[in-house]
Amino acid sequence: MLVTTMLKYFVSRRVLLLATALALCLNLAGCGLFQPQVESDPGPTPKVCKLIVKSAVCQIGKRYKPGGVSPKSGFDCSGLVYFVYKNNGYKIPRITKDQAKFGRRVSKDNPREGDILVFRTSNSPNGLHTGIYTGDRCFIHSPSSGKKVKRDTYASGYWKNRLVAIRRVVR
């Protein structure tokens, strides 16, 4: 009886060691069988993100126009974001408050080029402003009447404490 018990112990111990060794080898070999599945980011590819930023950069200097959605007539903030995404094959809402809810929420610590930045500019329900993140805590936007599309930082000055959301556009 003692021999049978000891034999079972050594066999089960040996099987456990072999299984562990096999799992380790497969994992080290890059099989990925034992690695958790990570959901891929459904946002634009890095190449498309760069095109989105490039499209926004091309609008710098265009005039502000309430309701504007084109380089010829001018842009309001959401019109600029709408135009840039549309020209890169993405359909997004035209209105600021809808852009502020569109796509997927991204941590303020993890923006990516091309993400939509949403700022709170007043306490009214429509007191929102949008722009396109360009990297290095900067964004391109169409600020207000009498001004032109420009690149700004949100790390200091007026925009510093006004960032309320970052949205990643998904298809």
Provide key terms for this protein:
171 residues, alpha+beta, endopeptidase fold (from Nostoc punctiforme), 2 domains, six-stranded antiparallel sheet, two-stranded antiparallel sheet, 4 helices, 31% helix, 20% strand, globular
Task: Tell me the number of structural domains.
Answer: 2
Rg over CA atoms, rounded to whole Å, is: 26 Å
**How many angstroms separate the termini?**
66 Å
- Structural class of the helices, strands and pairings? alpha+beta
Question: Remind me, CATH topology of the largest domain?
Answer: endopeptidase fold (from Nostoc punctiforme)
SSE topology string: HHEEHHEEEEEE
Helix-residue proportion: 25-40%
CATH superfamily of the largest domain: endopeptidase domain like (from Nostoc punctiforme)
Return the CATH class of the largest domain. Alpha Beta
Q: Which oligomeric form is depicted? A: single chain
The CATH architecture assignment of the largest domain turns out to be Alpha-Beta Complex
Number of helices: 4
Largest sheet: 6 strands, antiparallel
Mean pLDDT: 84
Sheet with most strands: strand arrangement: 3-8-4-5-6-7
Question: Would you give an account of this structure?
Answer:
A six-stranded antiparallel β-sheet has the order 3-8-4-5-6-7. Residues 21-39 have low confidence and may be disordered. It folds into two domains: 1-38; 46-168, endopeptidase fold (from Nostoc punctiforme) (Alpha-Beta Complex), CATH 3.90.1720. It is of the alpha+beta class. Helix content is 31%, strand content 20%. The longest helix has 27 residues, at 2-28. It is built from four helices and eight strands; from the N terminus they run ααββααββββββ.
